[in-house]
Specification:
Keywords: Membrane, Transmembrane, Transmembrane helix. The protein has 268 residues and is mostly helical. The chain is built from 8 helices and no strands. Helices cover 76% and strands 0% of the residues.
Length: 268
C-alpha cells in the first residue's frame, strides 16, 4: 500500500506541475496556476499520514516506510529547485520569456552551485531523519525499528558522498578551455578599450567647455594690464613756464593778487 501510494504521489507531482504551468502560461491564469503548484506539498502530507496510519495499524516497519520518508525529504530539499527550473523553461517556450541560464560550468561559480545542491541534499536528509526517528518513537519496539534506522544511515551516506563531490569542485575547480579563455580576455580587452575611449571623449568635451570660460576670465586682466601700461607710457602734463599755477585750496585771495605781475610794485 505504501509503495503504491509513493508511485501515486510521484505521478501526482508531475501531473499537478504540468497542470499548473499550463494554466499559468497557456490559459493566462497565473493565480490559478500558482494555486495548483502550491498543492504539491499536500501530496507529501497525504503520504506521511498514510504511512503513520499503516504503522499504527500494526504493519511491520520495512523499507517501504523508509523510502516514503526519503521521498518526502527529497521533495523538501530539491522540489522547489525542480519546479523553478521547469517554470523558467515553460515561460521561455510558452510565454516568450528569455531563455533561462544554465548552471555555471567552470571556476568558483560552479563550486558555489554544487555547494547549494549539497545544502538541498543536507536538508532532505535532515527531514527524512526526523520522520524516521518519529516513526521509531511511534512504533516503540526496538526489535521492529531496524529497517527504519538503516534508512537513516543511508540518507547520511548519500549526504557524505554528495559532499565529497561538491568539495571536489572547490578544491580542484574546473578551468575553461584555452580558446574560451582567450575569447574572454579579448572581450575584456575590448571592453576596457571602449571604456577608455568613452572616458577620453568625456574629458575632451569637458575641456572644450572650460576653454571659452577660461578665455573670457583671462581676457579681462589682460586688457586691464594693457590699459595701465598705456597710461604709464603717456608723459605727464605739468605746468609750463609762464602759465599760471593752479590755485591752492588753502590760498587766500590776496595771495592770488601777489602772484599777478601788475599787482607787484615796480622798482624804479
Amino acid at each position: 500500500m505504501v509503495v503504491t501510494l509513493i508511485v501515486i504521489c510521484e505521478v501526482g507531482f508531475w501531473v499537478l506541475l504540468a497542470a499548473g504551468l499550463a494554466t499559468r502560461y497557456v490559459l493566462r491564469m497565473p493565480r490559478t496556476g500558482a494555486a495548483l503548484l502550491l498543492c504539491e506539498p499536500l501530496l507529501e502530507v497525504v503520504l506521511l499520514v498514510v504511512t503513520a496510519v499503516d504503522l499504527r495499524g500494526g504493519a511491520e516497519p520495512s523499507w517501504r516506510h523508509g523510502l516514503a520518508a526519503l521521498y518526502i525529504g527529497y521533495t523538501v530539499g530539491h522540489g522547489h529547485r525542480t519546479v523553478k527550473w521547469l517554470d523558467g523553461h515553460a515561460a521561455h517556450r510558452l510565454a516568450g520569456a528569455p531563455r533561462p541560464a544554465g548552471p555555471p560550468r567552470y571556476g568558483t561559480a560552479r563550486a558555489r552551485y554544487e555547494g547549494r545542491l549539497w545544502l538541498g541534499t543536507l536538508l532532505g536528509a535532515a527531514v527524512a531523519t526526523a520522520l524516521l526517528q518519529a516513526a521509531v518513537w511511534y512504533v516503540d519496539d526496538p526489535s521492529r525499528v531496524g529497517p527504519l534506522q538503516s534508512w537513516m544511515g543511508g540518507a547520511w551516506r548519500a549526504v557524505a558522498i554528495h559532499g565529497v563531490i561538491a568539495a571536489s569542485y572547490a578544491i580542484w575547480p574546473k578551468k575553461p578551455p584555452k580558446e574560451s579563455r582567450d575569447e574572454n580576455r579579448e572581450e575584456t580587452r575590448d571592453e576596457n578599450r571602449d571604456e577608455n575611449r568613452d572616458e577620453n571623449r568625456e574629458e575632451n568635451r569637458d575641456e572644450d567647455r572650460q576653454e571659452p570660460m577660461a578665455g573670457t576670465s583671462e581676457q579681462a586682466p589682460r586688457e586691464r594690464l594693457r590699459a595701465e601700461g598705456s597710461e604709464r607710457d603717456q608723459p605727464r602734463q605739468g605746468p609750463r613756464n609762464g602759465s599760471a599755477r593752479p590755485p591752492r585750496e588753502d590760498a587766500r585771495p590776496e595771495d592770488h593778487l601777489q602772484d599777478r605781475p601788475e599787482a607787484r610794485p615796480s622798482r624804479r
